[in-house]
Amino acid sequence: MDTPQVIRPGEGLTYQTSPTDVMTFLCPGDDSTPDVMIERLAPGDGPPLHSHPWAAWDVVVRGHVRFHVGGETFEVPPGSMVYTPPDVVHAFAAVGDVEAEIVQYQWPGGFHVAYAELAEAFADGQPDFGDLAKIAGRHRITLHGPPLAAHAGGS
After folding, report:
1. pTM of the complete model beyond 0.85
2. Is 16 helix (H, G, I), strand (E, B) or coil?
3. Which of the chain's termini has less CB crowding within 10 Å, N or C?
4. Domains of the chain
5. Which of 42, 53, 40, 48 has the alpha carbon at shortest distance from 111?
6. Model confidence over 90-135: pLDDT tens digits?
């Protein structure tokens, strides 16, 4: 990307994997640019335990979020940043009684392609975990287990 960019609300690529988990890609990246996105999660929402070969930075801007990164689990408030190195198993879930919002930066980019396919699988309801694992695998994402909320007994 070698020209200035301005993305206003409603202009990004937006996908839903549930009625309460919405991801908007402000910058759909590639090998030379990052993915920059905003994810909004209802309490208890979050991805399954997974890993991928790119780095991720997550900044919590609203709500509280429980993260599991590299075998350690912790809860962070707004204003916190969590870095996940490539290939480290991780997951997160909104906790408490308010929606969480996370600004995410992933380098290199390209995750938006995988997320579009995952969102399509959710269009008719909750897909089978095995089907999700196949989609994820096509995009170099490995699913290691259920969402974090399931490990903690909910939010």
Report:
1. yes
2. strand
3. N
4. 13-140 (2.60.120.10)
5. 53
6. 999 999 999 999 999 999 999 999 999 999 998 888 888 999 999 9
